[in-house]
TrEMBL record:
<keyword id="KW-1133">Transmembrane helix</keyword>
<keyword id="KW-0813">Transport</keyword>
<dbReference type="Pfam" id="PF00153">
    <property type="entry name" value="Mito_carr"/>
</dbReference>
<protein>
    <submittedName>
        <fullName>Uncharacterized protein</fullName>
    </submittedName>
</protein>
<comment type="similarity">
    <text>Belongs to the mitochondrial carrier (TC 2.A.29) family.</text>
</comment>
<keyword id="KW-0812">Transmembrane</keyword>
<dbReference type="InterPro" id="IPR050391">
    <property type="entry name" value="Mito_Metabolite_Transporter"/>
</dbReference>
<feature type="repeat" description="Solcar">
    <location>
        <begin position="70"/>
        <end position="154"/>
    </location>
</feature>
<dbReference type="InterPro" id="IPR018108">
    <property type="entry name" value="MCP_transmembrane"/>
</dbReference>
<feature type="repeat" description="Solcar">
    <location>
        <begin position="1"/>
        <end position="61"/>
    </location>
</feature>
<dbReference type="InterPro" id="IPR023395">
    <property type="entry name" value="MCP_dom_sf"/>
</dbReference>
<dbReference type="GO" id="GO:0016020">
    <property type="term" value="C:membrane"/>
</dbReference>
<keyword id="KW-0472">Membrane</keyword>
<keyword id="KW-0677">Repeat</keyword>
Length: 167
């Protein structure tokens, strides 16, 4: 006889991903596994795009007018700043994503959820959790973007002498 999955919300248990997936499938079918996917895509496009778009201008502003490669610390700082700003701006997308992933039936989609939360609970509820979310994003983006830029610069400097061809 198959074991019934524990419910992580009931009895304080912690279910693994397989148990939670099975429980979601059992309660709502295959469609329930995709709750909030549109909101996840919306959040990723807005946050990811803004984070990448902000990185280079922030890095260049912090570096000043010199033509030298910015220091590693400055690149990591620029990545952290771009992540924090993008996360703060896109926190409403995170709030909507979490609510739709939780399977809230009161929302018909991303736009409806944004409007409903703003009108029913106040516009500031869309920025609930902005400080911890932005702090986490600063750390992640600082490491991701900063180290990517550092390694990219080193790889170009290492490979470019090999690409020079004497004619």
């Amino acid at each position: 006889m198959p074991r019934e999955p524990r419910n992580a919300l009931n009895a304080g248990g912690r279910a693994g991903i397989a148990e939670m997936g099975y429980a979601v499938w059992k309660s709502g079918g295959a469609r329930a596994l995709y709750n909030g996917v549109n909101a996840s895509i919306f959040r990723q496009f807005t946050y990811g795009g803004l984070r990448l778009a902000l990185y280079q201008p922030i890095r260049d502003t912090l570096a000043g007018s010199g033509n030298e490669t910015p220091s590693a610390g400055l690149q990591i700082l620029a990545g952290g700043a771009s992540g924090a700003i993008a996360s703060a701006v896109c926190t409403p997308a995170d709030v909507v994503k979490l609510r739709l992933q939780a399977g809230s039936a009161q929302y018909r989609g991303v736009g409806h959820a944004l409007c409903t939360i703003a009108s029913a609970e106040g516009i500031l509820k869309l920025w609930r959790g902005v400080v911890p979310t932005s702090t986490r994003a600063a750390v992640v983006a600082g490491v991701e973007l900063g180290f990517y830029d550092i390694f990219k610069t080193r790889a170009i400097n290492w490979v470019s002498p090999c690409l020079i061809v004497d004619r």
